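Q: Can someone sanity-check these two? First one:
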Amino acid sequence: MFRNSIITASLILSGVFAQAATSCDDYLKSFNEYTQKVEGVLVKKHSIFEITDWSRNSRFQGLVLTAKAPADIEVVLETKANSKAKVISVKTNKTTPFAQDEKYRVVSLDVEKQLGSAPQHSGTYIVRVLASGKELCADKKLIFDDGE
């Protein structure tokens, strides 16, 4: 019973904290590129989706800015690999056009290097989007070892 109470309180508090920060979904998305055979020909394709938790089975290739993102944008990626680790922060304002879809700009951050290609511990990461020195949004997600 005590454990269930702790879990319930934890879920309530995480919901409160999640609502406190504005989601970055309007400005920032995740992407994956892949090839698919279409009528016997390999074709380059891509998927654009909301930023997700990070694990071996759910990671994404990178981040892209949407058309709503201001020109003077800066993206900050903060990681905390586990409860005892220090926060590691990287930031960039560099972007390149997304070759697969001109509506998006690729953020020049190596997310796999920053978040780890095969997480061994549970942790968190936060993506912050800033413009003109003001934080527009922040998304906090989990890093976890999914056991493979």
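And here is the second, same format, sequence then tokens:
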Amino acid sequence: MQKGWKVARPYVQKALKAPQNHIIDGPRSGGCIIQVRSKKTKKPLFRLDYAPIKHGRPAVLHYHVPPNLKDHHVIF
């Protein structure tokens, strides 16, 4: 969890410092632990997940960031 927080912390802190510009979501179904979105566009700026990357595989802690939110950046 420390590795996940190390990656998520800058995004969460930025959202907490400017709540007028950001929305923090989570947890939710599908493995999402936390998500930071732009309040203006509603688009995700960061998402931390614990879920399988491929169907039938074990769950892994990973995150998504723009420009390609479909890319999985594995933490462990």
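A (reply): Looked at the second one. Strands lie at 22-25, 32-38, 44-52, 59-64, 73-74. Residues 27 and 33 are 4 Å apart (CA to CA).
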